[in-house]
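Structure first, sequence second, as always.
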């Protein structure tokens, strides 16, 4: 019996399809993905890459942080070093011999303090609002204090809100050159590795604690931090009655802002 033979045109079509298939598999990413899925080493590399946290963008001089005007960014957006040498961004404004470092909450950046920074600058303070990105807010505050000293501030005040308040207390307790006064708004006793309660026990500078009395554990923390600040020459606790406002939001009420401002002015030059 004679062997069956495939017609020549059919062979030509099949060869063409096969070649096209090989070409497509080389250009598309599908072949690579399938191979990677079969390789334990490749899968491990993918998992490791996915597990790496996204590094924050490095600070840039002139950054507007999403809220500064072009003029403000050009004149006041700076890059400086934290106490451990990490680069940090911030907004510098105002003038005078009394410097104020402002530390923001965990859910914000420089913009949380922008309006108050400008207001304090107009009131005669030299202000540096820190943009916390390095993960060590207390070291950033200490670095900001050094910048203000260099800028001519021979008196120094620290003010922080929520996590920034915890960092402010931590920095005040450990800075070699102590600040002249501290304000902590809705500060928790601890935040990550920072221990504000331990810091408060060693604090030897005037301090004002403020929290809304309806702000849950933060109201309790303000009382306990104040109770621990037995070495502070002035230890002022301001529970804001009927308020659940938190951190910087407390200062939207004129009475609260005036209380804080009066405390700051008491310790300026």
């Amino acid at each position: 019996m004679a062997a069956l033979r495939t017609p020549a045109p059919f062979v030509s079509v099949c060869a063409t399809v096969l070649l096209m298939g090989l070409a497509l598999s080389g250009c598309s990413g599908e072949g690579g993905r399938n191979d990677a899925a079969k390789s334990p080493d490749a899968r491990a590399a993918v998992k490791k890459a996915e597990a790496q946290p996204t590094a924050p963008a490095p600070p840039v001089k002139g950054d507007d942080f999403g809220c500064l005007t072009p003029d403000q960014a050009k004149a006041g957006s700076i890059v400086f070093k934290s106490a451990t040498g990490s680069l940090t961004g911030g907004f510098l404004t105002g003038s005078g011999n009394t410097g104020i470092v402002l530390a923001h909450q965990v859910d914000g950046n420089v913009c949380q303090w922008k309006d108050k920074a400008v207001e304090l600058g107009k009131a005669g303070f030299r202000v540096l609002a820190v943009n916390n990105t390095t993960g060590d807010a207390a070291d950033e505050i200490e670095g900001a204090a050094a910048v203000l000293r260099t800028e001519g501030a021979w008196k120094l005040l620290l003010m922080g809100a929520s996590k920034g308040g915890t960092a402010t207390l931590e920095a005040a307790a450990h800075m070699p050159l102590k600040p002249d006064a501290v304000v902590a708004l809705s500060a928790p006793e601890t935040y990550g590795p920072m221990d504000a309660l331990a810091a408060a026990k060693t604090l030897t500078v005037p301090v004002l604690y403020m929290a809304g009395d309806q702000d849950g554990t933060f109201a309790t923390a303000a009382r306990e931090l104040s109770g621990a600040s037995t070495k502070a020459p002035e230890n002022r606790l301001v529970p804001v009655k009927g308020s659940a406002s938190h951190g910087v939001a407390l200062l939207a009420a004129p009475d609260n802002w005036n209380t804080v401002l009066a405390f700051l002015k008491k310790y300026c030059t």
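Margin note: Residues 8-27 form the longest helix (20 residues).
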